[in-house]
TrEMBL record:
GO molecular function: hydrolase activity
A Pfam match: Abhydrolase_6
The protein, known as: Alpha/beta hydrolase
Keywords assigned: Hydrolase
Residues covered by the AB hydrolase-1 domain: 32-278
Matching Gene3D superfamilies: alpha/beta hydrolase
InterPro entries, per database record: AB_hydrolase, AB_hydrolase_1, AB_hydrolase_fold
Amino acid sequence: MRDEILPGAEDGSVTVDGAPIHYLRAGAGPAVVLIHGASSNLADMSFDLLPRLARNHTVVAFDRPGHGRSGWPTRGGEQLAQQARILRAALSELGIDRAIVVGHSYGGAVALAWALEFPESVAGLLLLGAPSQGWEGGMGLANDLLAHPLTAPYFAWALPMMMSRLSLARLTDELFAPQSTPRGLIDHIDPRRIFAPETLRANAVQLQTLRRQLLAMVPRYPGLRVPVEILHGTEDTLVPFGFHAEPLAAMVPGARLTPLPGVGHMVHYAAPAEVEAALARLARAG
């Protein structure tokens, strides 16, 4: 973790269901939780968003179960609701029982599950490029191989050996398009952790059932009774705006949708001012 970005931040872990859940906490003020997406870790949030928000909030970023420096709980971490329960328990261990929950991409789906399962602990919900609807098809052959118990040990071992720094940079550029990858980000997120075999397998297992879980959650969205802000790039090709953000905003009573013209999937890098404004609205509402 770069000290010049987060001076004085608390870097630690708490144990939930027999596994360490790694966190980074900084700032003072109303509590905010940051949940990263798939194939990632909390370093994605600490690169810019966490220090930015910590000027006015107590911000806690977690490594989701199986990612970064967090372990795999004994009671399972495959399902969105399981991850929400685990992160809520970890937050409670830190002395925080209610917070604004911010989730990017897959982390937004975890945040949605958190609000559905434990609404009393959610002061507000901020979704950044988050999937919310079930789609046709699967996650692709590579994910299938990493998720299957017979092929996962071999493919998870071979994939990091096939990945060069150049290919990682290309993947990151695709993720950020049409914006550019921030200078220094790849070193900051520590690719060795993302491509660790056990992390690759955990990531694949979690993604494998995402579509089915979202389909099951859709009928519950109209029952959400927490303040909801949705920020989504109109040029997001990974989680398309029209398929996910617009239907969700129509389903959730009082939800506020902010389309971000020309922005791709990495909303928290491309539109930090809009993220801060949405968070301020949630703080006032909650």
